[in-house]
Design a protein that fits this description.
With 195 residues, the chain is an alpha+beta fold. The chain is built from six helices and nine strands.
Length: 195
């Protein structure tokens, strides 16, 4: 893990994560450096801003051995057996590979790999692919949405473009820089939030 000197004089270690959204074309991938000591709720916040989600839905994490973590305020532990309180867990508890699920209605699943030490500070260091807009129907609906959005001859083109105002089908270096700024602005684990 990498060391850095935050403004407060403390050493921060980061871990590099590769996050891949399952079952979408083109691929949606983010490469992030996150504080190695991040709590699971902090990790959720970092993933939300890096990917481009709006934190409008429930989420959970599942380790490679099937251990599941969720926010206890959601009541998910009341309807699903064996869900642990995410507020008591850290990135380390999730292991080297885990799944991040977001929006159980649309069913977005992200494969997350801890690939090794990160850089000198938290941020988004790479990636590809635009994050689907919220509530577009999951991987299958996203395929249909994307087709209508990009094809001016599609019968739903105008309606879809109006519904997804501001969404772009591409992810550029400027988008990566924006994601990097948002990740840094979270200020988790005592790292001072970037202004």
């Amino acid at each position: 893990m990498s060391d850095a000197e935050p403004a407060r004089g403390r050493v921060l270690r980061t871990s590099r994560l590769r996050v891949t959204l399952r079952e979408v074309t083109p691929p949606v991938v983010r490469v992030l450096d996150v504080p190695a000591a991040a709590t699971v709720p902090e990790l959720h916040d970092l993933l939300q801003v890096a990917l481009g989600w709006t934190d409008s839905h429930l989420h959970e994490f599942q380790t490679a051995d099937g251990v599941r973590y969720a926010d206890p305020r959601t009541g998910l532990d009341d309807v699903v057996d064996d869900v642990r309180d995410e507020t008591t867990a850290t990135l380390r508890d999730l292991g080297g590979e885990f799944v991040y699920r977001y929006d159980f209605g649309d069913g977005w699943e992200h494969d997350v790999q801890v690939t090794g030490p990160g850089g000198p500070h938290p941020g988004c260091v790479g990636g590809e692919g635009a994050c689907p807009p919220e509530d577009c129907g999951g991987p299958y609906g996203y395929g249909e949405f994307r087709e209508a959005f990009t094809d001016p001859g599609h019968p739903d083109h105008d309606q879809v473009r109006a519904w997804a105002t501001g969404w772009s089908p591409t992810w550029t270096e400027t988008d990566r820089q924006d994601a990097d700024t948002l990740v840094r602005a979270t200020g988790c684990c005592g790292w001072p939030a970037a202004s």
